[in-house]
Automatic annotation (TrEMBL):
A GO MF term: exonuclease activity
SUPFAM superfamilies: Metallo-dependent phosphatases
Compartments (UniProt record): Membrane
Alphabetized UniProt keyword annotations: Cell cycle, Cell division, Exonuclease, Hydrolase, Membrane, Nuclease, Transmembrane, Transmembrane helix
Residue span, Calcineurin-like phosphoesterase domain: 3-162
Name under which the protein is recorded: Putative cell division control protein/ dna repair exonuclease
Top-level taxonomy: Eukaryota, Metazoa, Ecdysozoa, Arthropoda, Hexapoda
Keyword Cell cycle: yes
InterPro entries: Calcineurin-like_PHP, Metallo-depent_PP-like, PGAP5/Cdc1/Ted1
UniProt key word Iron-sulfur: no
Signal sequence annotation: none
Pfam families the record matches: Metallophos
Domain of life: Eukaryota
Amino acid sequence: RHLKRTYKRAVQHTTPDVICFLGDLMDEGNVADDVQFANYFSRFVDIFTQPTADTLMLFIPGDNDVGGVGLEALPMRSDRVLRFKQYFNVQDEWLAHSSLRFIHVNRMEMTMTESTYLSNAEQQTYTVLLSHVPLLRSTDTFTYQAIDEFQPNVIFSGHEHKSLHIKTHRNRLQQGVTFAPLNTAGGSRHEVLEFNLDYLRDTRELLEFVVPTCSYRMGEMKIGYGYAMFDGDKLRYTVLWTSQRIYQLAAYSMLLIPLKLVCGQIWCNILKRYWCCCRKRPRNYLPLPLG
C-alpha cells in the first residue's frame, strides 16, 4: 500500500509523459518459477499503473529480475531474460515526441541495440541512455563503445538504490570517476539541478544520474522517485523523496509493544473475572445431627 500510494502521488504531482523503470522490478524475479513470476508481475502492475493511455512506460531488466550481477548473483539465463521481455514488452529503443529518444544499454549482458533512427545531429533529437548498472562506473571498452555510438546527452541508471550523479569530460573517464550524492543532505533535499544539453554536447561532457530506489525493502533509509524535465535544450532534475518507511515501521513497532501489553493485561483481567465468577465454588456442609 505504501508503494502504491507514493507512486500515485508522484504521478499526480508530475503528470509525466514518460515513466522509466530502471530494473530490479521484483525482489526475487531471478529465482522465481513461472507461477511465482506471474504473481509478482500482477502485483507490480497493480501498484505501478499506467496513468493515461498516452503515457509511455519503459521497462529494463535488473539483476533481481534476470540475475547476472555480483558475486552472489545467479548467472543470467536466456530463459529468464526472454520471460522478462515477454511480460514487460521490453524494447531496446523508444522515440518520445520526435525530439527525445531513449536507448537501453545492457551492461549486464554487454549488449546494445543498433539505432534505427537518425543521429542526434541529423534529426535534432536528444538521446537518453537507460542502464540498470551505472554506465560510467566502469571505464571499459563497452562504456566507450556506448558513448561513441549513441553520443548520449544524459544517462539514467539504477542498481545501487542511492541518489548519485556525475558530470565529467569524456577524456577524464580513464582516470576514474567518483559519483557524488545528490539531494541527500537536509538542506538540499528539494534542490532542482539544471543543465544545458547543447552545452554538454559541445563540450563533450557526460552526465549520469543514479536514481534511488522507491521501495524500503531494498534496505535504504532514503527512498524516492527521480524526476527529470526536458524543456528545449534545458534539463532539470530532482528527487521526489517519500517518507522514510523504516522509521515509520520502527515507530509502529514501538507503539505496538505497550499497546499489546495493555490489551493483554485487560484481557487477562476479563478472563480472570470470568473464571472467578463461573468456576465451581466449594461448599462447606454442617454435619448432620445424630439421632
